[in-house]
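Progress note, sequence design subtask.
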């Protein structure tokens, strides 16, 4: 199963508290920070919640 590289492209300032917590739980801190996460249902669900703030790429 492939992994996903997630990059924060927009600020979490002035966002809903739930969205801020999700971004923090994903391990993203500042704009342009990236993290590699496993591709599973839990990760996909979290990414769907903040899709407007991030960019997702598939990593082999």
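Output:
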């Amino acid at each position: 199963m492939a992994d996903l590289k997630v990059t924060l492209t927009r600020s979490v300032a002035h966002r809903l508290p739930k969205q801020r917590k999700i971004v923090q739980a994903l391990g993203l801190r500042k704009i342009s920070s990236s993290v590699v996460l496993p591709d599973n249902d839990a990760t996909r669900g979290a990414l769907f919640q903040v899709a407007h703030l991030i960019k997702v790429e598939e990593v082999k």
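The first strand starts at residue 3 and ends at 8. Work on this subtask will continue into the next period as scheduled.
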